[in-house]
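Reopening closed ticket. The problem is back. First fold of the pair:
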Amino acid sequence: MNHKNGFNPLSRTTAHRRAMSRNMVTSLFRYERITTTKSKALEVRKAAEKLITRAKTDSVHNRRIAAKFIADERILNKLFTELGPRMKDRNGGYTRVLKMGFRQGDAADVVILELVDYKLPEPEEKDAKAEKKAAKKVSAEKAVAAKE
């Protein structure tokens, strides 16, 4: 029976689990979207949501508590200057878990863990095509000028 067991040990030692959780939360705040297994995502989500709740009010106390969990200073600043204020009007539920399917090697459930207000980056295909066209035009002009 699994009564009153508050967390999933993920078949890891305490130190490994704590380090993995810190790294994954830092990556989530850096990229705002990570791909992982379902069980890891559900554990990381708990820590991430608590940190975002702390970040809604920027105080020295809250920064120090978050700094115990996030070692990267830039990510800590991003949490308190961007992510916390962005989630100010939201009462929890800052992350979402999207199912992707099963991993090829071990058939583990793979999910995407992302912040709810995550926006996909705009594709830059139009700019790349325009640059290629301009480069071809310039090279063609150089070829014509060289012949003359």
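Second fold of the pair, where the issue appears:
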Amino acid sequence: MILLRRLLGDVLRRQRQRQGRTLREVSSSARVSLGYLSEVERGQKEASSELLSAICDALDVRMSELMREVSDDLALAELAESAAVEPVPAPVRPMLNSVSVAGVPPERVTIKAPTEAVDVVAA
């Protein structure tokens, strides 16, 4: 199960670490206890919108940027979760300007005009 509070905490931690700042600095600037901020970053506490706003202000990051990054991480987590449940029978992996269609029946291969040159290699 994907927990939004964990994804949010991961993004907050990355933002803080990108700036080279400590938990103590950010907690002081956001006026939140160091322990509570630590729990938010570890995904153990659910942050209110007011607290998120204070942390974003302390990090000088727009909340929309924070949420966009959380949304991107959520999309990746959902893809990973669905891939674990529904395995893809024969992966089609892009490789240096070529595509391998090994294990895919010929009648299931459709090639559309690419924007750049692509080699199709039959296995």
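Update: turned out to be a display glitch only; the data is intact. The beta strands are 94-95, 98-100, 119-121. The first helix runs from residue 4 to 18. Please close again.
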